[in-house]
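Fold this complex.
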Amino acid sequence: MLSFSVPTTRHEELLEITPQIEDVVSQAHITEGLCHIFVPHTTCGLTINENADPTVRQDILKGLSIIPEHGFAHAEGNSPAHIKSSLLGHSLTIFVKNSRLALGRWQGIYLAEFDGPRTRKVWVSLRQ
Amino acid sequence: MLSFSVPTTRHEELLEITPQIEDVVSQAHITEGLCHIFVPHTTCGLTINENADPTVRQDILKGLSIIPEHGFAHAEGNSPAHIKSSLLGHSLTIFVKNSRLALGRWQGIYLAEFDGPRTRKVWVSLRQ
Amino acid sequence: MLSFSVPTTRHEELLEITPQIEDVVSQAHITEGLCHIFVPHTTCGLTINENADPTVRQDILKGLSIIPEHGFAHAEGNSPAHIKSSLLGHSLTIFVKNSRLALGRWQGIYLAEFDGPRTRKVWVSLRQ
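Structure:
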């Protein structure tokens, strides 16, 4: 299991981490296998989505704003972040093929920050 | 890693792909293991849900229509499809037992099309 | 593949199952690996979220109540439960490190009941 940190810069943000994951894969010398990714947090998540037009990332955050900002019980005030992280989930499983991540043409890997800015950890484990 | 294609026929649709995945599993001669499924797209997803009453599939699409159809920035106009695909996710992990998918009695595997009709690819990888 | 049952006590509930999963891991004598969890149901799901303040669990259920309770086609009347289970998903993949679940400091594993009370099954499979 490998770990790296990413600093987020906004309260809510979809931050691309494909290059960091690609680095882990290329250093692992695995030809075919699986790449498991996990974030050990409860107010950020992981997702795959379009890596071309940046407005898609902005629209995903806007779409998730159907979760109201207020009216929750948790005293820290960040319940929307907890809810959104559960909606996207905290892990991803991606195939490795020819020693590279097997992603679709338009797919990128994103850490979805919902309670930033913070420094987040990303854990990666590769299996042959 | 195996790949097969499925044509979707509507703009939004939950298309059952359990038989195709079962075929992959039965040809793999694995007794116990894991079946990983992945769609290399950003406007469709994967989910497990009831395979008995077809109204459930219709209701899942209706439930996801809480994401507004308009008001997004992405010029292609398919932001709701991007958002819904991230909500369901692009991969599934299902156990294999006695050389078959270990699904619950009412569970089926669905490709969730949100920007069809299109031909979609489904990738499958089995591990012992 | 191991299986255990958990009785839920309310119609909607986030029930912590971290101790049961930890037990499975500790009995498996695996140092490093992966823990795959799956629920063979269509009206409950699995999620990871905060295990400290119990109001977070309550707020997650409240957040998911953006799915309307009525207005669906399925005659059983439990379509919101089907929809919410697909939103959270039916499986989790968690790393195992030093013979223990590698969770973040605030993370717990929850069975998300949306159509209880019922007795639910949880399946667990460990890989080295």
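The interface with chain A takes residues 1, 36, 38-42, 66-68, 71-76, 79-80, 82-83, 85-87, 89-91, 93, 121, 123, 125, 127 of chain B (CB under 8 Å).
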